[in-house]
Task: inverse folding
């Protein structure tokens, strides 16, 4: 120690970080941690990434082509996080996605084009961006001796008392404990790391639910989608509410001349959906879309063949009241902390922003984890919960209420265009321009929009649960209406009788 001091050196504090989950948030967090190392830094980070599935970073172009999943929009929050790493977006991520200049909304076969004057949006397949970030991580840090990757390795549980994680390699069947100084739980909606918070913290509140919707998707040749005989615009998002009836859908262009078409419905409409949609016969499904899908023509046979080969998908919603544990030295981020509906397209953006926020807090607090971990919860819990609430309640399940919301938004945007200093931009539009989700949540709450939509949603969701479980038989709203009318009649009769008695 004295020799080191005489040489003008200091002993570095070593921190071994175990990152569970090699999705966008986990990989970006690993990169940011390894970038913190340097000769003049007081802390030396080593990173071990544990992932239950295969290494997408090792796949060649033909291999990842077979792994297409779903398209995800990247906007201000996610792009800012990626661009904070020199070369990551420019040299890796930008090569695997498509820039989007605006959107087309279809009402039947009529389309309304809304181009963004300052486009800063980008869509990318989830597995493609994972591959791009993983390649950057390997290219820059594989030979440093500070990075190790464990793919096809399942986390069974976290032993927070001894700061270790029990894992199983699915290829060899080998079990082992992996020690850590800091644990990052980036392991998705069914997070094993989050389960440790449930087990060890009695004040930890967490709910996991679904998004109250089912959907399917298909990867189609974009040049076969024609609107009135003309190919649809490949640089725009295509949104088609009510197509087919009771469905909502979106089509996002992919690389390689493909387009990802997603269509789904809310669960309260399931009994109203034509049975042809649930058929296992591709000819039946193809004919259904020929008859009922009006926005543009589709390669119906290709769509139907993909449709019948997949199960109906849903996704989870996660709400937590904090994202860290000092006694177990861990944090959760991304879907492990705030999995959400894709309705406003901010799930991956917020996950990437989590990784950037954690790095910025390490800067702010000098790598002092005792300060950084609670600060992470303080900063990100409001953003994560705002994300979930906005995704679920930004749009209404009631057609009449949603019509009023759209009309109000159009009026606001019109007035904002002429009187920007007097009329603020629509809060949801502000998200794409970089506004914090918690600020948008606050604004929509004060406007009364979120509380109104939430009331309708919770009523519909509750009615659906009561009906599907057999708790309530029939339509209780009809009985409620009867009693309301009866009560009004009784009050009116009493008022008339009183007036008659007074006049007499």
Result:
């Amino acid at each position: 120690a004295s020799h080191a001091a005489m040489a003008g050196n200091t002993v570095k504090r070593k921190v071994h970080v175990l990152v569970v989950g090699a999705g966008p948030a986990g990989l970006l967090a690993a990169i940011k941690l390894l970038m913190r190392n340097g000769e003049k830094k007081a802390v030396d980070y080593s990173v071990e990434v544990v992932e239950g599935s295969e290494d997408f970073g090792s796949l060649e172009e033909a291999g990842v082509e077979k792994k297409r999943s779903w398209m995800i929009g990247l906007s201000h929050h996610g792009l800012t996080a990626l661009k904070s790493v020199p070369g990551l977006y420019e040299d890796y991520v930008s090569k695997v996605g498509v820039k989007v200049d605006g959107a087309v909304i279809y009402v039947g076969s009529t389309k309304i084009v809304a181009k963004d004057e300052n486009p800063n949006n980008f869509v990318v397949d989830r597995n493609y961006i994972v591959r791009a970030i993983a390649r950057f991580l390997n290219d820059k840090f594989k030979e440093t001796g500070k990075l190790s990757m464990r793919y096809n390795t399942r986390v069974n549980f976290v032993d927070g008392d001894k700061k270790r994680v029990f894992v199983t390699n699915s290829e060899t069947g080998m079990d082992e404990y992996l020690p850590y100084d800091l644990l990052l739980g980036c392991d998705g909606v069914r997070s094993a790391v989050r389960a440790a918070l449930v087990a060890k913290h009695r004040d930890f509140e967490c709910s996991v639910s679904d998004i109250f919707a089912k959907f399917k998707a298909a990867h189609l040749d974009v040049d076969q989608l024609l609107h009135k005989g003309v190919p649809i615009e490949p640089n725009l998002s295509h949104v088609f509410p009510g197509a087919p009836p009771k469905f909502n859908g979106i089509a996002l262009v992919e690389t390689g001349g493909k387009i990802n078409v997603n269509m789904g419905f809310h669960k309260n409409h399931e009994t109203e959906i034509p049975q042809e949609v649930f058929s296992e016969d591709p000819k039946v499904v193809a004919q259904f879309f020929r008859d009922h899908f009006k926005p543009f023509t589709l390669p119906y046979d290709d769509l139907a063949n993909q449709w019948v080969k997949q199960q109906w998908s849903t996704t989870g919603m996660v709400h937590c009241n904090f994202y860290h544990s000092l006694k177990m030295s861990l944090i959760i981020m991304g879907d492990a902390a705030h999995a959400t509906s894709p309705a406003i397209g901010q799930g991956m953006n917020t996950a990437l922003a989590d990784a950037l926020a954690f790095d910025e807090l390490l800067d702010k607090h000098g790598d002092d984890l005792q300060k950084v971990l609670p600060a992470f919860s303080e900063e990100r819990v409001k953003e994560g919960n705002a994300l979930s609430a906005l995704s679920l309640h930004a749009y209404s399940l009631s057609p009449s209420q949603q019509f009023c919301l759209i009309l109000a938004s159009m009026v606001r945007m019109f007035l904002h265009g002429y009187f920007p200093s007097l009329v603020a931009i629509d809060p949801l539009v502000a998200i794409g321009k970089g506004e914090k989700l918690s600020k948008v949540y606050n604004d929509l709450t004060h406007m009364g929009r979120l509380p109104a939509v939430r009331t309708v949603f919770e009523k519909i969701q509750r009615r659906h649960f009561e009906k599907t479980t057999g708790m309530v038989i029939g339509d209780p709203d009809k009985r409620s209406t009867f009693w309301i009318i009866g009560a009004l009649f009784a009050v009116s009769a009493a008022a008339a009788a009183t007036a008659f008695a007074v006049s007499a």
Q: What stands out?
A: Residues 1-8 have pLDDT under 50 and may be disordered. The longest strand covers residues 213-221. DSSP finds 17 helices and 22 strands in the chain.
